[in-house]
Amino acid sequence: MICTLQSGGAIVGQLIDGATIDAEYEVPIIEVVSAQIEPIFEVGEVPNVHPTAFVHPTAKLGLGTEVCEGTYVAARVIVGAGSNIGPNVRLLKEVVVGAGSTIYGGARLLGGVIGPLSTVGAGSKLIKTVMGVNSHIGTECDIRRTTIGDDTNVGDNVTTDGVTIKAEAEIGDGATLMSGSIVEYGSEVYAGLTVPKDYVIPECGLFCLVNGQIWQPKRKRPL
After folding, report:
1. Each residue of 51-62: b (16+ CB within 10 Å) or e?
2. What's this model's pTM, rounded to 2 decimal places?
3. What average pLDDT does range 177-191 have in this prediction?
């Protein structure tokens, strides 16, 4: 048997013959059949769950949510209305995804909160990270224990651990932010640079190198 339905229409997945275990996250790769899920919002269409996706019976999907092929939604995960969860995504450790957000294929989210209208790029991994509203993380990022403010853009291949990035900041592709560093409101880190441990980039500052030295001029305050 591939799946059954509880009262209220929640999906109950079961391991099937030949199912495997994801070695990194220790979650089963399970096939289920599509089924309607009990609505948790008042308006919109019922979630659309691909037949090869798995949604734990204690997870909650908002109306109009799309869950694509091969995706795993673990216990007590919450996905807001109108969100799009791409193929082969792992939503684990009770992560909360805000309404209208997009999680692209192959991303791994372990705990934390993704604010409404935000995006996480393909192949990125987020661990215990909190994102604000309308913020965006690029592809193949490794973001751990990081707080990201509203309207912030993080480029591709960015690495952070134990960092605070405040609202309307810009983090260039390939940047590395060491633990304890703070990017203040409206600041920008240039691509490929490493922000040292516990370093603070002031409000509306630029973090770049000139002749091999850190240079932090002010930039125009974001509107």
Report:
1. ebbbbbeebbbb
2. 0.78
3. 95
Residues 6+ positions from 188 with CB-CB distance below 8 Å: 169, 170, 171, 172, 205, 206, 207, 219
Range 33-45 burial, b when 16+ CB lie within 10 A, else e: eebebebeeeeee
- Domains and their CATH numbers in the chain: 3-215 (2.160.10.10)
Residue bearing tokens 């000139």 = 210
Residue with tokens 């913020």: 135
**Distance (Å, rounded) from C-alpha 98 to C-alpha 173?**
25
**Positive or negative CA dihedral for 200, 204, 209, 210?**
negative
Distance CA 72, CA 157 (A): 23
The first and second tokens of residue 213, run together, are 């030295």
Q: Which helix (H) or strand (E) holds 142?
A: strand 142-144
Nearest to 199 by CA among 220, 221, 214: 214
Region class of 57: left (phi > 0), else alpha (psi between -120 and 50), else beta: alpha
Q: What is the pLDDT of residues 51-101, one digit of tens each?
A: 999 999 889 888 889 999 999 999 999 998 889 999 999 999 999 999 999
